[in-house]
Amino acid sequence: MTPPTPSAAAPLEVTEESAEKSITSPSPKANESRSPGQLAWRRFKRDRTGVISAGIVIFFFVIAIAAPLIAKLYGKDPYTTYGQDIPGLLNDFAYPVKPNGGISSEFWFGIEPQLGRDVFTFLLYGIRTSLLLATAATVLTTLLGVVIGVTAGYLGGKTDYLIGRVIDILLSFPSTLFFIAFMPVVYNLFVPFDEDVPVWLRATCLILALTAFGWASIARLLRGQVLGLREREFVEAAKVTGASPARIIFKELLPNLWTPILIQSTLMLPAYVTAEAGLAFLGVGIIDPTPDWGVMIQRGAQFYSDDITFMIFPGVSMILFVLAFNLLGDSVRDALDPKSKR
Amino acid sequence: MSNTNPLLDVTGLTKHFPVKGGFPIRRTVGAVQAVDGLDFQVNEGEALGLVGESGCGKSTTGRLITRLLEPTGGKISYRGQDITHAGRKELAPVRSEIQMIFQDPYASLNPRQTVGKIISGPMEINDINPEGGREKRVRELLEIVGLNPEHYNRFPHEFSGGQRQRIGVARALALEPKLIVADEPVSALDVSIQAQVVNLLQKVQQELGIAFVFIAHDLAVVRHFSQRVAVMYLGKIVEIADRDDLYGNPRHPYTKALLSAVPEATVDETPARERIRLQGDVPSPLNPPSGCRFRTRCWKATEKCATEAPPLVQVEGNKPGHLTACHYPETEGTIPAPRLSKDPQAAA
């Protein structure tokens, strides 16, 4: 390096000048600065697919939350067997009399074959149950995954090794087989064999089982991220100033982990919706008469050769929801992490 | 150099990194002797330069002093207080007095925090409430390091490398430290920016009277900045002396070789310096050579060098404070030191 020349000091003065300028300038625009979050939000707003998907996803959540209100305005509920109670709706073979699954001004999405329940409210409440279960499982999974992953990554050593092996086992475990084989056993732990399993117990067990097998992937991802961040110099800088481990984790590391956490959980929720529906279809999740997306598809599968309409509503709505949520997850990732664009 | 009451006193500092291997049970199979028995002092307000090629343990030394790493052996005392193995709570009062400036300005600032938060963080942790509030103090600090105080709410990604390094300096100054360990603070910057940051550090050192341990591999930067210079080779200090003494009268063959490798920018009548070309590579710190660690590449090495490690002492012909670890020290003036303008006015 050459010895410093007087010109080396020049930029110093420039910054001082610009400092004065910006203090005196009336428009605060020069000092406007955007956080990484604000930048991501701007990128997201420009992404048309993402915005449309977000609209669809929000729509589904709104109707799920407002299901009782909508049902009240509509004047029906998902449990009453209208087809059996009111004559003239189902024929002798217990199929809707009217074409297209019995769609009419009174029953917007038609009526269910055999039991004759209202498809519209059944679907609304089904979405409500499914989304509630999937959201709860996602939140729990994310929490558990973050706590375990960050702990493993930050502490390292033996803890990391132990957690790593548990994750290996969980990820290589055939979880669907486990659900089919062991969910009845789990229910029997709480309720005697000959009694009905209450809905809340089924729901809780489902959420816990989904969580137990779901946290491993997010924990492994975050462990890797923390391992990378832990050695970064800003963490050392915090240590030099005397920061406690808690402060380093919550103030220094966690803000840098929101991106992978958000991306993972937006991709996890639709996966849980389908998993939950799959379990209901197989008869180990939520069961009839509780309204549920998977239950509806299972019922629909019994009649689809004669009454395809009953299958179409839950099927199409689920495809729409999962597709929109996955696209939303992609858009969120692109917005938060512009470098990862394929 | 009076060593009556040094700010920082390091004796026999050692750091060995264990190397694990084996299957299925992993165990320690060796140790990287990154730092092996360092002795030096830093006086109040003094800048000590630490030079050496990559892998010689400079950065490890810096991290040991700031206690980011746990020393394997030796003793570090700050103002007479032993901090070698002090825990986080014990260290707390000393923490605010020993700060660090990092090498990579892109990794040393948290990308999710504003400049204001980054600089006020140390004050928050140590519960320091300056007069007029932390924000006012941060704005003052930004001005001291030559940044616009209005940048308070900006994020690191909006700054260039040199500006980021200034933010790093401001963060180090936030606690009003007595000693700053600067770990290659300019080597990640463009040459044109290096001068600015070095001058900023020099201004800070002179005006605020802060002692520095300045780690670098650039001899010219160290010469410009430090009052005293220590040369490291493979985890040991081979020579330590006042700046002019070391650059003018290098006694250790390694120092001499190092100085002869500095390129000359001037084209004048003086005959070209003889360049000493060292043979071979730096030996692995996993298995350093016996005796003098430099002997494998030294042109003067004898049997004695292989069996007996030379102590770091004042060899014959040295001024007081000029210590050399060599059995066969060089004689004066065979190689002229690189020419550099030593005008302190240009630096200010």
UniProtKB/TrEMBL annotation, chain B:
Belongs to the ABC transporter superfamily. SUPFAM superfamilies: P-loop containing nucleoside triphosphate hydrolases. GO terms for biological process: peptide transport; transmembrane transport. The lineage of its organism: Bacteria, Bacillati, Actinomycetota, Actinomycetes, Kitasatosporales. Residues 8-259 form the ABC transporter domain. Keywords: ATP-binding, Nucleotide-binding, Transport. PROSITE patterns: ABC_TRANSPORTER_1, ABC_TRANSPORTER_2. This is Dipeptide ABC transporter ATP-binding protein. Pfam families: ABC_tran (PF00005), oligo_HPY (PF08352). The keyword ATP-binding applies. One of its GO terms (molecular function) is ATP binding. CDD domains: ABC_NikE_OppD_transporters. Residues 329-348 are annotated as: Disordered.
